[in-house]
Amino acid sequence: MITKRQLLKGSALMAAATLATPGRSADATVTPALTPITGDIDPISVREREARVARAQALMNWHKIDAILLEPGPAMLYFTGIKWWRSERLTCVVIPRKGEIGVITPFFEEPSVRESMTFGDDVRTWHEHESPFKRVAQLLADRDIKAGKLGLEASVRWFVADGLRAAAPKMKLVSADPITRGCRMIKSPTEIALMKKANEITLRAYGEVYRQLQAGMTPADVNTLMRNAQTALGGSGVWTMALFGEASAYPHGTDQPQEIKPGQIVLMDCGCAVEGYQSDISRTFVFGEPNAEQTRIWNLVRQGQNVAFEAAKIGVPAGKVDDAVRAFYQKEGFGPDYQLPGLSHRTGHGIGMEGHEPVNFVRGETTPLAPGMCFSNEPGIYLPGDFGVRLEDCIYMTEQGPQWFTRPPENVNNPLGSLA
């Protein structure tokens, strides 16, 4: 059962942060049903998607790439609004350096693909006995591209690349990352707003879950609470991870049986999407009274977040943020470098339509920080065999420097944080 101290603490936290109703014991009345909070969002407009294609075409001119090919996934959704999936039957989008985009899809999928198209009308179909790659080659030829460079993202599958080489032998396959990354790395105000809403959903869900933690719960129990709360609040594609005690010392956990016990660390890493844009928040609680060592490590990690935030200045290479955190932790007796006990992973990662995107806060990353970039800020400390602490809040870069999507918590007794 939840202790009296936890009930009082939960009640005060929820009232202060307005994230959930006051805490109460497990045998109290059922929590009122959560409702979606996404009614005020503005989806990405057709005009913005067309501007993205124009930006991609400008970058193709700069990099001398004649066209790029996108398989279903975040990049296809980003540029076209088409929501599709990958299978052995190729559906793809071709963006030429000049002219209209084109879609290749199986004949029987055309009506469904057209349903999610937001602009463009050049859809070319293929039957089961035909080659989709010949359709790609013909589309390129119709855009006056018979030879040159065709860009593919790193995630494009081998059979697609192999089929393109055979169907368009005069095309040289190159990386499309300079184009897709060049567009997606800098978020627009609308994208930032969608990410704020996704983060709001996840933070509010944390408030619901924190209030309901009980001794004896398993990771599956806690994950179910978090998944249901994020979904009820309007999040899609929700994901959750809950680690207890020693398992929290391993960033992605363990398969060993776990259950919540008094005085134990509960580390959670969770997120969702709104209109395809992601949140990613980690919180570390102590179930009951934190001991001195738990409090010390928690406070150091919280300071580590501040070190990263203060180091993230416009024009600074992204890797310098990671360097600053490691230097701080080493002075406190952790590391050195990526050694344990200490911070064994990068300080943060890019985030947007994917939970992990370039660029990262990692040693050696030379890309300068620029307005519109978004990152996680998660400099955990892990003590193998004992416990770990990770606090993660995402930031976005502005002309004036970094801004929080969610404000980190201030101490282990008030471990939720608040909306920025």
From TrEMBL:
<protein>
    <submittedName>
        <fullName>Twin-arginine translocation pathway signal protein</fullName>
    </submittedName>
</protein>
<dbReference type="InterPro" id="IPR029149">
    <property type="entry name" value="Creatin/AminoP/Spt16_N"/>
</dbReference>
<dbReference type="Pfam" id="PF01321">
    <property type="entry name" value="Creatinase_N"/>
</dbReference>
<dbReference type="InterPro" id="IPR050659">
    <property type="entry name" value="Peptidase_M24B"/>
</dbReference>
<dbReference type="InterPro" id="IPR000994">
    <property type="entry name" value="Pept_M24"/>
</dbReference>
<keyword id="KW-0732">Signal</keyword>
<dbReference type="InterPro" id="IPR006311">
    <property type="entry name" value="TAT_signal"/>
</dbReference>
<feature type="signal peptide">
    <location>
        <begin position="1"/>
        <end position="25"/>
    </location>
</feature>
<feature type="domain" description="Peptidase M24">
    <location>
        <begin position="194"/>
        <end position="399"/>
    </location>
</feature>
<dbReference type="Pfam" id="PF00557">
    <property type="entry name" value="Peptidase_M24"/>
</dbReference>
<feature type="domain" description="Creatinase N-terminal">
    <location>
        <begin position="52"/>
        <end position="186"/>
    </location>
</feature>
<dbReference type="InterPro" id="IPR036005">
    <property type="entry name" value="Creatinase/aminopeptidase-like"/>
</dbReference>
<dbReference type="InterPro" id="IPR000587">
    <property type="entry name" value="Creatinase_N"/>
</dbReference>
